[in-house]
């Protein structure tokens, strides 16, 4: 039997995710999770241990992969060429072209277009008053800044989003392979068609890292948008009238925590919060658990803008390089939802998807009830 935390079904359903972490929370520090399919792995559920692990790539490397479900051998040939699984000098070299490409000041015009496109769509949805899936109608289109930053035609956005969604599906291996094939095909076309592989050194590096950006950017933010929408529907913002928008956005991201885990492999025997770890051990950091650690966050399930910065974007050298774009997208969505000429209503409690890696929803059924708006 695989350990329950390796089973995607453990995370599915409508029960609060905080219930999943409860049996594992103790005094803090890593918890050993025995597993028949592998030898086992350490799990981290507390904020302090997560920071210790994520800030120290010399002890805890990403080079052997950051996903529990991924076989180590898959990555040995790319670990100096793909940002997310590189460390040290290779990581620093790869981070620079990413920063150039994803700089948010290049996206001012695109943000205006995104705002106008979402506002138009919301006006139409308000006018019909019909039930709709917010993931498809608002959350997926909201990630347009990522594909725009990478220079893709806007007509390809939905196809790319679908390929990433399918490529992450842990319940359908054949569909996931097909999704990844589609994704890499589209990326290769883009690299060969556009201005070559710039700003990377060669085509392989460009393809690997563009695919990595698309994975990182398209499979996370839609779920934060869903959380934002649920908070708007629940009038959570009204409870904190003095909060700044930037604080609201940070708190939405913490509550959503769409990256379920990231993983490291121990490089040298060491001790984490007093627990001895051996070289080769895997350490899985469960980010939503750390972002609801009661030692750091009082009443963690409540929306309270102005809290301590969360670990939703990670910590240390691998801190999410798309964080500015993600914040811009979420800020834009909150703005247009708050200004909608209708009241957003949840039609059902959405079910979390069966996934060990993505904390989010397949579908979020909502409608706009006619009102005079709230902005
Ligand atoms: C709210 C949305 C997002 C969340 C919660 C999120 C979360 C994360 C986390 C936790 C990491 C660190 C992984 C690790 O330490 O192993 C990360 C890294 C990364 N993210 Fe994001 N991400 C988001 C949006 C984006 C966007 C919009 C992009 C692209 C535009 C992106 C691209 C990346 C890349 C390329 C990395 C690798 C950075 C590195 O290894 O140096 N992410 N993200």
How is this structure best described in words?
The protein is an alpha+beta fold and 375 residues long. It has one domain: Cytochrome p450. It is built from 13 helices and 10 strands. The protein has helices at 17-21, 47-54, 88-102, 108-128, 134-139, 144-149, 157-167, 173-193, 203-218, 221-233, 245-256, 287-290, 323-338, and strands at 31-34, 40-44, 60-61, 132-133, 261-266, 270-272, 275-277, 282-286, 342-346, 365-370. The strands form 3 sheets. Strands 1-2-8-5-3 form a 5-stranded mixed β-sheet. Strands 4-10-9 form a 3-stranded antiparallel β-sheet. It has a two-stranded antiparallel ribbon with strand order 6-7. A hairpin with a 2-residue loop joins strand 6 (270-272) and strand 7 (275-277). Helix 4 (108-128) packs parallel to helix 13 and helix 11 (245-256) packs across helix 13. The termini are far apart. The relative contact order is 0.19. It binds protoporphyrin IX containing FE (HEM). Residues 54, 62, 66, 83-84, 95, 98, 102, 146, 212-213, 216-217, 220-221, 224, 253, 258-259, 262, 287, 312-314, 318, 320-322, 325-326 line the site of protoporphyrin IX containing FE.
Quick description:
The protein is an alpha+beta fold and 375 residues long.
Strand order of the largest sheet: 1-2-8-5-3
* Number of domain units: 1
What CATH architecture would you give? Orthogonal Bundle
Describe the global form.
Answer: globular
Low-confidence stretches: none
Bound molecules: protoporphyrin IX containing FE
Helix content estimate: 40-55%
Rg, Cα atoms, Å: 20 Å
| CATH domain topology | Cytochrome p450
End-to-end distance, in Å?
Answer: 52 Å
Question: What is the β-strand count?
Answer: 10
Q: Report the average pLDDT across residues.
A: 93
Write the element-wise H/E pattern from the N-terminal end onward: HEEHEHHEHHHHHHHEEEEHHEE
CATH classification class: Mainly Alpha
Beta-strand percentage range:
5-15%
CATH superfamily: Cytochrome P450
The number of distinct helices, counting runs of at least 4 residues, comes to 13
């Amino acid at each position: 039997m695989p350990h329950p935390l390796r089973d995607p079904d453990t995370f599915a359903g409508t029960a609060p995710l905080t219930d999943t972490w409860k049996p594992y929370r103790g005094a803090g520090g890593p918890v050993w999770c025995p597993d028949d399919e592998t030898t086992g792995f350490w799990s981290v559920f507390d904020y302090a241990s997560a920071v210790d692990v994520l800030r120290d790539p010399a002890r805890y490397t990403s080079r052997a992969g950051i996903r529990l479900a991924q076989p180590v051998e898959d990555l040995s040939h790319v670990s100096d060429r793909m940002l997310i699984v590189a460390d040290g000098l290779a990581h620093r070299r790869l981070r620079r072209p990413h920063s150039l490409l994803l700089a948010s000041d290049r996206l001012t015009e695109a943000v205006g277009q995104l705002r106008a496109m979402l506002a138009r769509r919301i006006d139409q949805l308000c006018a019909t008053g019909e039930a709709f899936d917010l993931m498809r109608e608002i959350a997926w289109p909201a990630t347009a800044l990522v594909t725009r930053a990478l220079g893709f035609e806007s007509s390809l956005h939905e196809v790319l989003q679908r390929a990433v969604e399918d490529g992450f599906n842990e319940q359908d291996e054949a569909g996931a392979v097909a999704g990844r094939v589609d994704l890499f095909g589209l990326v290769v076309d883009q690299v060969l068609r556009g201005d070559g592989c710039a700003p990377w050194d060669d085509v392989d590096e460009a393809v690997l890292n563009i695919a990595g950006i698309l994975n990182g950017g398209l499979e996370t933010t839609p779920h934060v948008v869903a959380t934002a929408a649920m908070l708007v529907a629940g009038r959570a913002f009204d409870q904190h009238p003095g909060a700044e928008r930037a604080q609201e956005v940070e708190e939405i991201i913490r509550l959503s925590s769409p990256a379920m885990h990231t993983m490291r492999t121990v490089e040298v025997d060491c001790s984490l919060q007093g627990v001895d770890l051996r070289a080769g051990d895997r350490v899985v950091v469960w980010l939503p658990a750390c972002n609801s650690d009661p030692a750091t966050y009082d009443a963690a399930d409540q929306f309270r803008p102005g809290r301590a910065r969360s670990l939703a974007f990670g910590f240390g050298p691998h801190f999410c390089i798309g964080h500015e774009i993600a914040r811009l997208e979420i800020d834009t969505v909150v703005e247009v939802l708050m200004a909608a000429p209708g009241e957003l209503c949840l039609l059902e409690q959405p079910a979390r998807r069966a996934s060990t890696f993505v904390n989010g929803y397949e579908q979020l059924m909502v409608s706009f009830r006619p009102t005079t708006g709230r902005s």
